[in-house]
Amino acid sequence: MKVTKLVSTCDIKDCPTIYATDRGTFLVQGETPTDHRLQIPAHETLVEIPMELLQKAVRDNLI
Predict the structure, then answer these.
(1) Which domain of life is it from (predicted)?
(2) Which one of 7, 33, 51, 52 is at 20 to 30 Å from 59 when CA atoms are compared?
């Protein structure tokens, strides 16, 4: 899979980030929440990213 960094909230490796793949999908790097009270299947996960990251991606016409 080829991964391209689209947008991040900082230049350090451990910040929330959105990546595009050559599969036509997105990868999202963020915090793993534990207090959501949702039933998520074992093969899936949740990540939490700040709203400013999505706003920046839309503003920059990346998504």
Answers:
(1) Bacteria
(2) 33
